[in-house]
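Please fill in the sequence for the structure shown.

STRUCTURE ENCODING:
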């Protein structure tokens, strides 16, 4: 097959068919790392903690391979992730825990790949070891959202591919939330930590993991006030519904504001991090 390559400088391009023996074979992907044993005692072997530069935009908690990282995260934010809490469920503590931000890079002990519960437990231990976090648990009546299943049943897609794998809960924009391999606890944990202004109680009694995408038009009470700044739809008549309607129509669930006893943690001790 003869031709001319015209991107940039024009030049002749000759392609020849080769035998299967001479064909290029891409390198095989490395085998998946073995899962961390269920009896692993979650802990980081090495962890560096540095203050974030003032004015650093964004914030995240990520896992890449066996590397755990936080970007521009407060201690309060790390506590909500590690312990599955809404900020309203943290009682007491110094003001800096909600203001000072940190960059953390850590590698787990052992050779396996931790699951999401093990990563969170390892972060909780790091907070105890390096930030001297001590607390006790209590109950307190709070303004909450309760998540239940509609009488007509849910519309979620069951995911049985990897019950010990990491869930995928990454927003593609304000009000665009694809979810994969996630439990209801994963879902409500993300909604209360990122979107909503109060804790969310999972009362669905749904077991297992699910895939779904939730799309809605956020308001000014959501995403820490940024919901009201979401780009307007090109055609307002076809804009996605508000959150509460979207959850009913798209997921077959119901989110309702109420008051109920909720778990809280009361901070007994918290200090600035120890040196690396």
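FILLED IN BY: designer on duty
SEQUENCE:
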């Amino acid at each position: 097959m003869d031709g001319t390559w015209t991107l940039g400088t024009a030049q002749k391009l000759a392609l020849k068919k080769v035998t299967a023996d001479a064909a290029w074979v891409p390198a095989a992907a490395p085998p998946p790392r073995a899962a961390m044993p269920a009896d692993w005692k979650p802990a980081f072997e090495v962890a560096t903690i540095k203050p974030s530069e003032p004015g650093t935009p964004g914030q995240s908690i990520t896992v890449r391979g066996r590397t755990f990282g936080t970007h521009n995260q407060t201690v309060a934010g790390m506590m909500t992730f590690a312990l599955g809490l809404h900020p309203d469920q943290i009682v007491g503590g110094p003001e800096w825990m909600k203001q000072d931000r940190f960059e953390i890079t850590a590698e787990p002990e052992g050779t396996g790949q931790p699951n999401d519960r093990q990563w969170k437990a390892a972060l909780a231990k790091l907070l105890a070891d390096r930030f001297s976090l001590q607390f006790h648990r209590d109950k307190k009546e709070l303004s909450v959202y309760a998540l239940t299943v509609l009488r007509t049943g849910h519309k979620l897609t069951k995911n049985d591919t990897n019950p010990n794998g990491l869930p995928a809960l990454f927003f593609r924009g304000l009000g665009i939330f694809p979810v994969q391999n996630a439990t209801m606890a994963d879902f409500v944990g993300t909604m209360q930590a990122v979107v909503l202004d109060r804790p969310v109680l999972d009362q669905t009694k749904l077991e297992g993991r699910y895939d779904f995408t939730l799309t809605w038009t956020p308001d000014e009470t959501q995403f820490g006030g940024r919901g009201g700044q979401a780009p307007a739809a090109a055609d307002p008549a076809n804009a996605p519904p508000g959150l509460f309607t979207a959850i009913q129509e798209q997921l077959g669930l119901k989110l309702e504001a109420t008051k109920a006893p909720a778990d809280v943690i009361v901070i007994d001790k918290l200090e600035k991090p120890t040196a690396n």
